[in-house]
């Protein structure tokens, strides 16, 4: 992961869930947790399954349902910054960028737009 991140100049966002995230905390400057409620989670599970037939089985959906609160608790314990994941995407992005650029500049607002961002997708397990 360190090698992959070193390929990029500027801010890089890695999106996803890693079962072994605790092994990679030192690689990231910040971790964000998009918190959602049970109703939003159910709607997203249904939408995902509809868009990706045949979708997950009921056991897979239940595992995700059961794990949400534990995952959120663990991520917060690890120092994740909580973001309201039920907000519109543009609001979520604005909150994340504001947190990132406030930390970089130590000022609440940025006078110039940020440099282009690159996004990497994370798999279930990150690799070194």
Can you tell me about this structure?
By secondary structure, the chain is of the alpha/beta class. The chain has one domain (2-121). It contains four helices and four strands, in the order αββααβαβ. It has helices at residues 2-6, 38-51, 58-77, 89-105, and strands at residues 12-15, 32-35, 81-84, 118-121. The protein has a two-stranded parallel ribbon with strand order 1-4. The radius of gyration is 16 Å and the shape is globular. Mean pLDDT is 81; it is low at 107-128.
What's the arrangement of secondary structure elements?
Blueprint (H helix, E strand, L loop, with lengths): L1 H5 L5 E4 L16 E4 L2 H14 L6 H20 L3 E4 L4 H17 L12 E4 L7
Parallel strand pairs: 1-4, 2-3
Secondary-structure-based class equals alpha/beta
Characterize the overall form: globular
Percent in helix: 40-55%
Number of domains: 1
Hey, roughly how much beta strand do the residues contain?
A: 5-15%
Strands, count? 4
Features:
12% strand; 128 residues; 4 strands; alpha/beta; two-stranded parallel ribbon; single chain; two-stranded parallel sheet
Brief overview:
With 128 residues, this protein is α/β, with parallel strands linked by helices. Helices cover 44% and strands 12% of the residues.
């Amino acid at each position: 992961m360190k090698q992959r991140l070193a390929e990029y100049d500027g801010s890089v966002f890695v999106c996803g869930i890693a079962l072994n995230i605790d092994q990679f905390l030192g690689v990231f400057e910040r971790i964000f947790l998009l918190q959602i409620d049970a109703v939003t989670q159910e709607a997203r599970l249904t939408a995902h399954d509809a868009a990706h037939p045949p979708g997950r089985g009921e056991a897979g959906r239940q595992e995700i349902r059961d794990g949400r609160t534990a995952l959120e608790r663990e991520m917060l314990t690890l120092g994740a910054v909580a973001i309201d994941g039920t907000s519109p995407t543009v609001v979520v992005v604005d909150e994340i960028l504001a947190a990132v650029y406030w930390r970089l500049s130590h000022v609440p607002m940025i006078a110039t737009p940020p440099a282009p961002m690159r996004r990497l997708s994370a798999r279930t397990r990150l690799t070194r």
